[in-house]
Design goal:
- With about 100 residues, this protein is mainly alpha-helical.
- The chain contains five helices and no strands.
- Helix 1 runs antiparallel to helix 2, helix 1 packs across helix 3 and helix 1 crosses helix 5.
- The two termini are about 20 Å apart.
Length: about 100
Amino acid sequence: MDSEALGLYIRATEFREKAAICAQSSPDFKLRFEQQYAQWAKRHAALLEKGSALASVQGLSGAQPGSIQSFAVMQAQILKTLPADDRERRCSELLDDLKE
């Protein structure tokens, strides 16, 4: 259960960072993401809370190198460098992942 909670927390952090990149090239992406993310986070609230606590205890929270946040920022920067069509596809996949 701990690994599931931490994994979900990592995904949530990546979702938010990648969404910021996706919103830069798609005016309606931010609203769609916020709506779907809110529903997804509500469904997984207990695990996300536990994952956040685990990240903190393990020294993985914050923006310092090696943290979950810094890893998510790197992932988002990779997304930003992709060709527009590939980036759009991955942004669409991100929204699909929230529907799981």
